[in-house]
C-alpha cells in the first residue's frame, strides 16, 4: 500500500499576489483587514508550518512578505494572466526535493491553518487536493510535485483551475474561502472577522 502521508517540510508554497486589483480600484493587497494588510493576513495562514520553501509572486506595489520567510518574485510590466504568475512561482521554487506544492491566493485572507491541515491530511500523491465550497473547486490546492510542469504550463487567467477538475475536493465553510475582488468583499471579510473565528 502506498504511503500517502505528507510532511509540511516536504512541501513548497506558491502564494499568488501579482494581480493589479482592477475590479477593486486600488491596491487591494495593501488594504487593512483586522489591522493587517490583506496579503499578509492570507500569508499568515501557512506561517506556522515548517514548509520547505515559500515563494510569493507579487506586483511591484504589493507589500513585502520577506520577513515571513518568503522569496519574492516581482512581476513588472502589463498585467499578466494568473497562469504566468503561477509559472513564475513554480520556476522560483526550483528543483528542490519536494513532495507537494501548495498554491494559495493572496486575496483569500480568511483561509485557516485548520483548512490547510485538512488538505495535507487528504494528500494523494497521484492527484491534486483542492478546496470546495458551494460545489465550486478552488484554491488553496495541494498538488503532488510531479504536477509542477503542468502547473507551469497552464494558459490564461484561470491559473491551475483546469487541473482542479480531477482533484479530490475538501469541503470548507464558504466564509473562509472568500475571495476579495471588490470593496464590498473586503467589507464582508471585515464583518466576518468582527463576528469571531471563521
From TrEMBL:
Q: What keywords are annotated for this sequence in UniProt?
A: Magnesium, Transferase
Q: Which InterPro entries match?
A: MobA-like_NTP_Trfase (IPR025877), Nucleotide-diphossugar_trans (IPR029044)
The entry lists its GO molecular-function terms as: nucleotidyltransferase activity
Q: Which domain of life is it from?
A: Bacteria
* Domain MobA-like NTP transferase, first and last residues per copy: 14-165
The record's listing under SUPFAM superfamilies reads: Nucleotide-diphospho-sugar transferases
Q: Quote the protein name from its UniProt record.
A: Nucleotidyltransferase family protein
The organism encoding this protein is Novosphingobium flavum
